Amino acid sequence: MKTLGNVLWFLFTGLGAGLAWFFLGILWCITIIGIPFGKQAFKLAKLSFFPFGKKVDANFGKHPIANLIWFVFGGFGIALGFAVTGIIWCITIIGIPFGKQCFKLATLALMPFGATV
Q1: What residues does 74 pair with on adjacent strands?
Q2: Is 61 exposed, middle or buried (0-12, 13-18, 19+ CB in 10 A)?
Q3: What is the DSSP letter of 72?
Q4: Cα gap 100→70, rounded to integer Å
Q5: Which residue pairs, CB below 8 angstroms and at least 24 apart, start in 2-10?
């Protein structure tokens, strides 16, 4: 079931989200200061492609300054986008598992530093 979920997710949501995270990571890595933020974007890209069967352990207190910078420079907007997409997926019964994955990604997009996949 996990494989079927990942394939359907990749076709309907994951490809676009993963590529967006990947290109955002490349943009962050242009500067030396942005490399840690780019690494987090690559982590999110990997998770966005195939999220089913993966668990996220959030420990947001580990890097509060980095999470605050991430939050200010786009984390809130990206998390809001995933939350809205999750609500849209949850409108139908069939889309509820996909909505749950969107909410997992929204949490991680809000504050990725200190979280492990």
Answers
A1: none
A2: exposed
A3: I
A4: 23
A5: 2/52, 2/53, 5/52, 5/53, 5/97, 5/98, 6/50, 6/51, 6/52, 6/53, 8/98, 9/50, 9/51, 9/52, 9/98, 9/101, 10/49, 10/50
- In the three-class reduction of DSSP (H, G, I as helix; E, B as strand; rest coil), residue 93 is classed as coil
* CA dist., res. 113 & res. 81, Å (int): 19
Burial of residue 67, with CB atoms counted within 10 A of its CB: 0-12 exposed, 13-18 middle, 19 or more buried: buried
- Looking at residue 1, its pLDDT comes to 65
- The pTM (predicted TM-score) of the whole model is 0.81
Across 8-46, b (16+ Cβ under 10 Å) vs e yields: ebbeebbeebbebbbebbeebbeeeebeebbebbbbbbe
Q: Which residue has the tokens 């962050």?
A: 28
Identify the sign of the CA torsion 73, 79, 82, 83. Answer: negative
Predicted confidence (pLDDT) at residue 56 exceeds the cutoff of 80: no
